[in-house]
Structures are given as C-alpha cells and as structure tokens.
C-alpha cells in the first residue's frame, strides 16, 4: 500500500496558485486517459496493466527459474531504461550480501574500458573448485543499436561463443523490439532466444515488460506479485487518482515558484537504486523545452553528511520527496554494553529501525524549518507487491506532471545531441 502526503510542501503554495496547478493536472490526466496528448502512441505501459499478459509472465518466471538454477553469473547488458528498472527492483528486494542464485552483474551501461576489461577477466576466472563459471547474458536494447550496449555485447558475445561454441545461443537471451534494429539482425543470424519490447512502451516505462521482468525473475523475485502489485495500483488509480493529482499539482506549482531541484531522499539504502530509476523516469520525461525540476537522489543518513548542509542552508532552490518504508524489515537492536564507554546505552533495547525513523523525523523537521517543501511517499512494507505499486505510482505521476507542463513525457530528443557529436568525433558514416 502506498500513500502520498504533500502536507509539508503545500504551505509553500498560495491557494490560487495551487488551484491553477490542480486544473492543469486534471487536464493532464484527461489527456492520458483519452490518449489525446503528445506522444500518446507510447501509452502501452498503461495498457499492459489493463490486460496483463499472463502467458508471458509464466514464460519469464520459468526461464528465470531455469537460469537461476543453472547460472553462476547473469549479466544484464543495457543502458538507461533498459537496465535501471531491473537494478532498482533487484536491489530493493534481494539481500545485500550472500544472495542465493546467480551473481547479477551489469554491462552495457557505460564505455569504461577498465570495468569491461576487469569484467571479462572475472568471467574467465574459474570457480574455487577449478570448474568454469556458467555464464548467461541478457542483452536489452529497444533500438538494438545503442553504442554502449552494442560494444559491451560484442565483447560478451565473443566470450560466450568461445566458451560454449554451438551451445552459445543457450546462454544469450535478447530483449528488443519486434522488428528492425541491428540486434534483430544478429538474433536472426545466430538464432538467439528473444523477448519482445512492445513498440508502444518507451525505455524508461518498460520495467514491467520483459526488459525488467526477466532479470528480476532471475534474481529470484516473484514477478507475478510485482506485476500484479502494479495492476492493483492501476485499478485503484482508475477509480481515484486524487493522491497523484495533488502531488502533480504541487510539483507544478513548486516549478512555477522557480524551484529547480527535487531531491528524492530515502533512509533505506535498499531504495537507493530505486531513486536512480525515478531520476531517469522523471528527468528524461520532464527536462525539455527549458522546463522541469531536476531530479536527484540522496540516501540518508549517509548523504546528510555530504548534501545535508546544502539542503538545510544552501540556495533555496529545492524541494524534497521522501520515500519511506513504514514496517521494519530488520529487528536488529542496540545491545547494552558494560561500562558504556561509547555512551550509547541510552539507545540500548531500541531497534535500528526505530533509530532510523527518529533520524528521518528529525531530518524532515529540520529541513522543513529550513524552508524545504517536503512530500512524503510511504510504503507500508518493502515487498514485491508494494514495489510494483510504487512503479506505477511514479509512471502515472510522471505522465500527469509532464503533461501539465505542456511537454511530451515520452520522447527524449535531447539525448540524440550527444550521440550525433560522439558519432561525428568517432568518424561514423
Ligand atoms: O528511456 C529511454 O527511452 C532511454 O533511456 C533508453 O532506455 C536508453 O537510451 C536505451 O535505449 P535502447 O533500449 O534502445 O538501447
């Protein structure tokens, strides 16, 4: 269950400004529902929740289990929307240390030679018992031509072909568009297994398609529960979108006041990468035509010791959105220590969750006294169902908020500019 409380931020906005923003949010929701806004051909992320593809979920779950049993290493090779969702969900829902099942590694998300060289060496290293590692690669690219992903895949493909010869196609799974793109050409030539990314779902809205679901299944997470968490959010918000409309209106009104930064803050290190997914979803959707609130991520209390000073007293150009988990997922308590030489016995018997909660409440109090508008998004517990719900919450918020700015939330024309310059410098014809 997700709740959204804009109370701490609302006092920064005058009533008439809020009402104006709220009217824009209402109109934006109509555009989404009626498919009348710009980019409405990319609204498939809603349709896939209206009519979930159970057969595909079963196929992904059983392949996930099979790979989980066989693989020592599973590499997710993709960039942007083609890996951030999987990383976010896997980090939120699997143990920090000693996870069972294959080690999940990422590639294709940058062009760092050192990383790739070390990755290739690590993959070739035998296991402790001297036997070779069993490696699976999932290359994910909707366009099938993104340079970062294609370069890493070239290295990985060569390695897999060297290692497994005729059986290489068993170890490579491709996730791409139905047709077109260079990756489809390779798939045809080599006979690799393939999952399809629907044409009407853009990269950053694709975590609930095979793009995210296959790696998430390999990580041992119940993808059906995750997806159906999003489906129940879809059905709930179909009936009542009030929470999201309020948040979208508030963000719009805050944007009008000239604030330029939204810090997505969490006190749960498990949700750090989820912040990264939100950052891409909002950033690539809203940052156009000179508009948008720059989304950034902070993991507290760690970042209270780096960004905290700025947030408390620096330029008043920011708002903060807290992602909160209410139910503790650890019972770890502080022990009583004989002698109390570290003077922490006043905390003895308290759980780390309780202490973390007080740190959060104290931070919210201090930041709101420091004139930071604060929104609180609460998850009742950290589980697959709630994460599915949270995914749809942010997708819908993004669609409504960005439409309320009068901008297309589903394209990313600015990303092409660096590519053009890079390809020119690389001499691509
Ligand atoms: O959200 C988006 O559309 C982008 O971030 C893409 O996911 C990213 O650029 C990767 O593209 P592709 O999947 O085509 O390799």
UniProtKB/TrEMBL annotation:
It is an enzyme of class 5 (isomerase). Its EC number is 5.3.1.9. Belongs to the GPI family. It catalyses: alpha-D-glucose 6-phosphate = beta-D-fructose 6-phosphate. One of its GO terms (biological process) is glucose 6-phosphate metabolic process. GO terms for molecular function: carbohydrate derivative binding; glucose-6-phosphate isomerase activity; monosaccharide binding. It is found in: Cytoplasm. It comes from Gracilimonas mengyeensis. Transmembrane segments: none annotated. One of its GO terms (cellular component) is cytosol. Pathway: Carbohydrate degradation; glycolysis; D-glyceraldehyde 3-phosphate and glycerone phosphate from D-glucose: step 2/4; Carbohydrate biosynthesis; gluconeogenesis. HAMAP family: G6P_isomerase. The active site is at residues 284, 419. The lineage of its organism: Bacteria, Pseudomonadati, Balneolota, Balneolia, Balneolales. Its main location: cytoplasm. PROSITE patterns: P_GLUCOSE_ISOMERASE_1, P_GLUCOSE_ISOMERASE_3. Pfam families: PGI. Catalyzes the reversible isomerization of glucose-6-phosphate to fructose-6-phosphate. This is Glucose-6-phosphate isomerase. Keywords: Cytoplasm, Gluconeogenesis, Glycolysis, Isomerase. The keyword tRNA processing does not apply.
């Amino acid at each position: 269950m997700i709740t959204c409380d804009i109370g701490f931020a609302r006092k920064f906005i005058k009533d008439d400004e809020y009402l104006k923003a709220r009217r824009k949010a209402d109109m934006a929701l109509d555009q989404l529902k009626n498919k009348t806004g710009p980019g409405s051909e990319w609204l498939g992320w809603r349709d896939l929740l209206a009519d979930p593809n159970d057969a595909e979920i079963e196929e992904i779950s059983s392949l996930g289990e099979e790979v989980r049993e066989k693989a020592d290493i599973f590499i997710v090779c993709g960039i942007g929307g083609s890996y951030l969702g999987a990383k976010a969900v896997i980090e939120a829902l699997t143990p920090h240390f000693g996870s069972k099942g294959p080690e999940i590694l990422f590639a294709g998300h940058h062009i760092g030679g050192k990383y790739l060289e070390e990755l290739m060496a690590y993959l070739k290293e035998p296991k402790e018992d001297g036997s070779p590692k069993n490696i699976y690669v999932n290359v994910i690219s909707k366009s099938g031509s993104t340079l970062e992903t294609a370069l890493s895949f070239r290295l990985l493909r060569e390695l897999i072909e060297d290692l497994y010869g005729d059986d290489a196609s068993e170890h490579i799974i491709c996730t791409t568009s139905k047709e077109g793109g260079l990756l489809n050409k390779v798939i045809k030539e080599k006979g690799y297994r393939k999952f399809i990314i629907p044409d009407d779902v853009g990269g950053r809205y694709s975590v609930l398609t095979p793009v995210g679901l296959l790696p998430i299944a390999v990580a041992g997470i119940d993808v059906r529960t995750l997806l159906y968490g999003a489906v129940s959010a879809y059905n709930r918000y179909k009936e009542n979108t009030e929470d999201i409309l309020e948040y979208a209106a508030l963000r719009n009104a805050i944007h009008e006041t000239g604030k330029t930064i939204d810090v997505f803050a969490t006190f749960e290190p498990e949700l750090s990468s989820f912040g990264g997914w939100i950052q891409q979803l909002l950033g690539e959707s809203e940052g156009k035509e000179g508009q948008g609130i720059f989304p950034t991520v902070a993991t507290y209390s760690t970042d209270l010791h780096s960004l905290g000073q700025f947030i408390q007293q620096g330029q008043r150009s920011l708002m903060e959105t807290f992602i909160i988990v209410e139910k503790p997922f650890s019972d770890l308590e502080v022990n009583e220590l004989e002698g109390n030489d570290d003077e922490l016995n006043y905390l003895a018997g308290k759980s780390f969750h309780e202490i973390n909660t007080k740190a959060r409440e104290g931070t919210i109090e201090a930041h709101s006294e420091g004139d930071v508008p604060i929104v609180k998004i609460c998850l009742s517990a950290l589980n697959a169902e709630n994460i599915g719900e949270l995914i749809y919450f942010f997708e819908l918020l993004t669609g409504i908020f960005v439409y309320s700015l009068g901008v297309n939330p589903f394209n990313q024309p600015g990303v092409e500019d660096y590519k053009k310059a890079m390809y020119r410098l690389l001499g691509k014809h």
